[in-house]
Amino acid sequence: MGGCMQAAGCEAAEASQWGKALSCWDQALAGVGPSNAAAASELHELRAQVLMELGRDYDAITAASRAVQLSPSSTAAHLTLARAQLNMGEPSLSLSSYQRVLQLAPGHREAVDESSRAAQNMEA
Prior knowledge:
Elements: H1 2-14, H2 18-30, H3 37-53, H4 57-70, H5 75-87, H6 91-104, H7 109-123
Helix pairs in contact: 1-2, 2-3, 3-4, 3-5, 4-5, 5-6, 6-7
């Protein structure tokens, strides 16, 4: 059921049905066992993206932080955390998260571009 709910959440998100996406992913998380940290991390990361779409940046940071905690080598989780931190007005924290993405995936295009924006925000 978890995979089915995850897919339904992705479809809802693609249709900009944010509330439905969150509901599906919450149901999927309830079905993910403690031994499947990677799946739980992915769901938290997806939730964080939607929470940012809803302007709920603090909640997005919480979800992305959980994703990073569950899967420290996930570039997607670190990238989403960096974006949420930047949205929340925390460019220095964001820059640290972008740097982690670049440690995991040197030359990651989005992280390179977005980290320069975070650095500019620190100078402003």
